Amino acid sequence: MLGRDLLAVLAAAGAEATALTRAELDVTDAAAVKAAVAGHDLVVNCAAWTDVDGAESAEDAAAAVNGTGVRHLAAACADSGARLLQVSTDYVLPGDAAEPYAESAATGPVNAYGRTKLLGEQAVAELLPETGYTVRTAWLYGEHGGNFVATMLKLAAQRETLSVVDDQQGQPTWTDALARQLHALGLAALAGAAPAGVYHGTAAGRTTWFGLAREVFRLAGLDPERVRPTTTDAFPRPARRPAFSVLGHDRWAAAGLTQLPEWQQQLTQALGRPGFAALAAAARAAAPGVADHG
Question: Is residue 292 domain-resident?
């Protein structure tokens, strides 16, 4: 999702970019990574093991991508002088706070995925103290890939009601908006205007998965009362999820950049895109008694 949106943003900006798929570059291969990085001013790492539940039983494999792979990228950037933007996650934090986590907050992942992503953060901080940027994000959705927003629209066409978790708080973030923020940060980094370190690339505001689902229904012209609240315990999964994934955004000011917009604003824009609009139209068509608002 993020990689494709980032390429679209870069193309619109007229930037030259080399985009490598997993088949074209294995980030766990140090020599291949070094060769790929050579000649580039800025590297954005959108490669990751993102199967959160799968990481519980395959932590070494996840760590090879999320930890060792990032270390290879950071080492290659250190050798070539390139700057690195590493995309990380809220899951490096313990998720037990009551107020938004500052960028300097102590880490403490509660699952294997978070532990492996923290290895990547540590590699960037160690090898690129002046030219490494870690951008933590969370609750991503976009047109290009499986995600919660798309799933809600698909289920809306199949089920009369949905039960959605209401005891996890976070910041739904559109990949297009994050891609634009990464581009802006990259330009600021190349200009020497952005201090290295951790940034939080999530939407402003906060909600729960239940709140997000209801807003998806409302914006799609569907009855939000069809979404019912439930608890995390009702959906047991291999990996523990943080209950609180709300991040603070103070460091953007140091880079001369504004934080991402409110999550509702992002969602409204996203649902206007063709992929989401088509899913919403199908959901309205399948819902008896629901008018199609187009």
Answer: no
